[in-house]
Amino acid sequence: MKAAFSIWSLFTLLLVLLPSLYLFYTWPSLPAHIPTHFGMGGNANGYTNKENMWLLCTLAPLGICLLLWFTPRLDPKRRLNAGSANYQKLMLALVGFMSGLLVYILYLAIHPQEKAGQGMAILMGLFFMLMGNYLTTVPPNYFMGFKTPWALEFPLIWARIHRVGGWMFCVTGLLSSLLAVLWSVPVATGVLIAGVLATVIVVYGYSYYLYQQVGKAA
Predict the structure, then answer these.
(1) Residue 171 confidence (pLDDT)
(2) Helix locations, 47-154, DSSP H
(3) In this model, does residue 141 exceed pLDDT 60?
(4) How far apart, in whole angstroms, are the C-alpha atoms of residue 199 and residue 85?
(5) How far is CA 166 from the centre of its chain?
(6) Dist. CA 203–CA 165, nearest whole Å
(7) What is the number of H-type helices and E-type strands within the chain?
(8) pLDDT tens-digit series, residues 74-125
(9) Domain boundary assignment for the chain
(10) Could you tell me which of 176, 198, 162 has the C-alpha nearest to residue 124?
(11) Residue 4 has what pLDDT?
């Protein structure tokens, strides 16, 4: 299935390049060791050498982009369409999340007085908002979405649980991001984890309920 090059593809390509460009721009100001892992409190507890950031900033966003570009070609039933606007928006969101995370890490290396927790929490919340928006429209497939056995068997069940699960992800992500800004990072993180777990439980329960209803109607 041939994917058309669109404005979304152009934005994705720019986001693939963004971390490397920002790394080049900030290189003289960067310390010898860059924080790459952070605890729950937002304090750095893992570092890598400055030179290793070239590999991370180049390969991480590029790898996600290539993986998503090839994934529809691996779908045996060709249900995912890499050329659709929705799928290209998904690529933009995932590459954008990774690139944004890398740029933020470089920013924190230059500004060690900044706490990482709030920015990370906001990024995670926005990520789940974007993922939720995509999941409401994702077609049945073997790679993306809530792949319950009943949803894979019945397209109607797939559509219904993804509308519910997608909106729950959106609300969870929005609430988590707002709490990170207005309240505290631990509360925002707790809400995000609880919301994701609740979404999975609801989606599986609703999927089985719909399956039973289909069986009764047959």
Answers:
(1) 95
(2) 53-74, 85-110, 116-135, 149-153
(3) yes
(4) 25
(5) 13
(6) 6
(7) 7, 2
(8) 776 677 777 777 788 888 888 988 998 899 899 988 887 777 777 888 888 9
(9) 1-114, 115-218
(10) 176
(11) 56
CB contact at 8 A, 144 and 64? no
100's CB contacts (< 8 A; 6+ apart) are: 123
pLDDT tens, residue by residue, 186-197 = 888 899 999 999
Nearest to 6 by CA among 87, 119, 122, 110: 87
Q: So what's the pLDDT on residue 218?
A: 56
CA 7 – CA 193 distance, rounded (Å): 34
With tokens 């706490």, the residue in question is: 115
Is 13:64 a contact under the CB 8 Å cutoff? Answer: no
Closest CA to 210 of 145, 143, 165: 165
Distance separating alpha carbons of residues 149 and 4, to the nearest angstrom: 32
CA angle at 17 for the pair 12 and 23, rounded to the nearest 5°: 145
Q: Ramachandran region of residue 76, left (φ > 0), alpha (ψ -120 to 50) or beta?
A: alpha
Kindly indicate the confidence band of residue 1, based on its pLDDT and cuts at 50, 70 and 90.
very low
